[in-house]
Amino acid sequence: MTSQQAQQPHSHPHDIEWIAILDAGSQYTKVIDRKVRELSVASEILPFDTPVQELLERKFQAIIISGGPQSVYSDLAPKYDPKLFSIGIPILGICYGMQLMNLVFGGKVEKKENREDGVDYINIQPSNLFKGMKDVQKVLLTHGDSITSLAPDFKTIALSSAGIISAIENVEKKLYGLQFHPEVDLTEHGKDILRNFLFEICHLKGGYTLENREERAIKYIRGIVGDKKVLVLVSGGVDSTVCAALLSKALDPKKIYALHIDNGFMRKEESANVEKALQVLGLHLIVVNAKDVFLNGKTEIKGKLTKELTNTVNPEEKRKIIGDTFMKVAQAEIEKLGLKFEDVYLAQGTLRPDLIESSSHFASNTAAVIKTHHNDTDLVRALRDSGRVVEPLRDYHKDEVRELGKVLGIPETIVHRQPFPGPGLAIRILCAEKPYMEPDFESTNETLSILTNYSRAVEDSGVKASKIVQQVHSLGAHDKLITLSGKFSGTLLPVQTVGVQGDGRTYSYLAVLSGAPDWSSLFIFALIIPKVCHNINRVVYVFNDGFIHGPITKITPTYLTHDVVSQLQEADHIVNQHLAKNNLLRKLSQVPVVLFPVDFGLGDKGRSIAIRTFITNDFMTGVPAIPGEDIPEVVLQEIVSEVSKVQGISKVVYDLTSKPPGTTEWE
Length: 667
Prior knowledge:
Blueprint: H1 3-6, E1 18-23, H2 29-38, E2 42-47, H3 52-57, E3 63-65, E4 91-94, H4 96-104, E5 108-124, E6 136-149, E7 155-160, E8 165-170, E9 175-178, H5 190-201, H6 213-225, E10 229-233, H7 238-250, E11 256-262, H8 270-278, E12 285-289, H9 291-295, E13 300-301, E14 304-305, H10 315-336, E15 344-347, H11 352-357, H12 378-385, E16 389-390, H13 398-407, H14 412-415, H15 441-452, H16 454-459, H17 463-474, H18 478-484, E17 489-501, E18 504-514, H19 519-532, E19 536-542, H20 562-581, E20 593-596, E21 607-611, H21 633-643, E22 649-655
Parallel strand pairs: 1-2, 1-3, 3-4, 4-9, 10-11, 10-15, 11-12, 15-16, 18-19, 21-22
Antiparallel strand pairs: 5-6, 5-7, 7-8, 8-9, 13-14, 17-18, 19-22, 20-21
Helix pairs in contact: 6-7, 7-13, 20-21
């Protein structure tokens, strides 16, 4: 049996209600699926072009259409069966799904001057979709296109703070649309909206309960592996540990080889801690020191050989080199054990979000690539296609893995350990040879200056200032920015970070604010700046006495070398020691510590450290910790003070960005 065969969907039992989720390419499609399952309704993710005849034959009782990265009027828009909206069963269109629904029935969808990216408030009207809910709702909006003319016979049932249509319905046709994402945690009552759709509109009963997760996973492992041997790559994190625990319950321990590869980018003293953590599973662990192998590693991408990792600055190439080098080191270790590579299965703790962000067809046929995960490179995909990769967690999200870990009896210290990327600190070092300064660098800096000195812009009769004032008005932020005018200085940094905006990847500028740390005001700017400057996907605050004025146009050339990695290891160690001492590791879902190649004009050829706190349940969306509320300010000041003393560190910044528009990691 191949891994593909093992993953084929079961036929639908007649006594269970099923809904179809048609995937138009959203990064959140699997989150829709999980939220529906939490409401005790069975769901299946299907390609967007699934024929209506198939949907009818399989007796789906409702359809949810996901969001997607394309525009409904684009030549690249995903194909669908034109009979979809006349199928006669309830349909909920989310984001792209709503826009398509409106277009099909004669409405207009157009690209607006302002994007709506991030948390916003909408005003709702009476509708069964919003039954039992207050008039104002906090939601996540991520779109550049908007409905500008409503289709005939449809009704607007919600407007955003900018007056843009946020929800529509046609009760007679059983068609409903949401411009925002009800499936993510950032939409405060999103689950209630889905509940209303399923039970008030679709009249489902909600009698579906999932099979025991442990039994399903064990059955899956045995079905693929049979009597072969398995190599499991373990990092010490919860994902690989739960994967290893499932293997140890499903198979004879003598058939399992647990391998921990130290790639040189681990946290300080990490490998020793991993060895202790995995003793609880009773597995024999092989630890390989492969630091130099990784630094000198190369791989082939689209038929072309890359540079050595230590000379590579492209983030995607870094990830692919690391992922493929993992496989090569694993193959060498298998041969040392006297085994044949083709006779051994590879097991790894890949999660659904990993596959979605890598745009793997196992999670989605249409999702845009946000970043390549080290456990989903071309080499891993080739192994997967040949049926030799065992991934019992690939249908799970992080919170579900933690629950399974508890069922398996894994200690709480491991179950609730903060996620750490497989490539390690290598992807938390922004490598660069030269400053990132596109032709729009100067004009974007000017826009930042206008926003932070907004009162001046209001009095300015210039075309650009007037246009920005109009944009701010449309966002409902005019009065706020008048109050905050002159409080901070804003400038661009000549580096790129990865983000996710409108279900697609952005690789854009980083903006920095300076001034006295008034956190509530800083977070207001972090929300507004990416909405006005679409080429900025991340905003940080720099700890500094007074303002830092731009432009900042120089960087410190940075590569993955031993000294650079050591800098970050030391800073990361300081941050995590303080988080552990103050019992913050459970409260904060993840805290990446990032090194980036900017010395803020100090001329010391140093680099700076970013502290990226992140609070989330689903790891697909999330918010930064608010100093003084989620993390004590005194703890943050202690961290900044100690990290600033690390040799070669110029400044420390604090990431103010939600996801979206910024991803959890910077690279």
